[in-house]
From TrEMBL:
<protein>
    <recommendedName>
        <fullName>BTB domain-containing protein</fullName>
    </recommendedName>
</protein>
<dbReference type="InterPro" id="IPR052664">
    <property type="entry name" value="BTB-MATH_domain_protein"/>
</dbReference>
<dbReference type="InterPro" id="IPR000210">
    <property type="entry name" value="BTB/POZ_dom"/>
</dbReference>
<dbReference type="InterPro" id="IPR011333">
    <property type="entry name" value="SKP1/BTB/POZ_sf"/>
</dbReference>
<feature type="domain" description="BTB">
    <location>
        <begin position="10"/>
        <end position="103"/>
    </location>
</feature>
<dbReference type="Pfam" id="PF00651">
    <property type="entry name" value="BTB"/>
</dbReference>
């Protein structure tokens, strides 16, 4: 899916690092995170994000959320960071399960720090 082209299901636009993401406000973001409810259902159809939100990482998060990209070693931490930032319980659970399944390949002390930082109790 190309988030940067308007399509029939997109009725709102998010701007990250000056680049547009066309999304459907009734599709998934507000369902997965209350953070998006106010900006997407307000009178404004465009919402800009504060600095610190990175275009490429936000794209990865949307792709994983919509099943267009699988969680992996290359995207787990950006996706986990945004899942935590936006309190996306589904994505947090998916990230936690991925880390549990990858436990044998990771250092225990690193996993404990990640578990503490992101509130991933099953990972401890």
């Amino acid at each position: 899916m190309n988030w940067h082209e308007k399509n029939p299901s997109s009725d709102c636009c998010l701007i990250v690092e000056g680049k547009r993401f066309y999304v459907g406000k009734h599709v998934s973001l507000p369902f997965h995170s209350n953070y998006f409810t106010t900006p997407l259902f307000s009178y404004m159809s465009t919402e800009s994000f504060k600095s610190g939100v990175e275009f490429q990482d936000f794209t990865m998060m949307l792709n994983v959320l919509h099943g267009l990209e699988a969680l992996g070693k290359s995207n787990i931490f950006p996706v986990l960071g945004y899942a935590h930032l936006y309190d996306m319980k589904y994505l947090l659970a998916e990230c936690e399960q991925f880390l549990i399944n990858s436990r044998k390949d990771a250092r225990l002390d690193c996993l404990l720090v990640v578990a503490d930082n992101y509130g991933l109790d099953k990972l401890k």
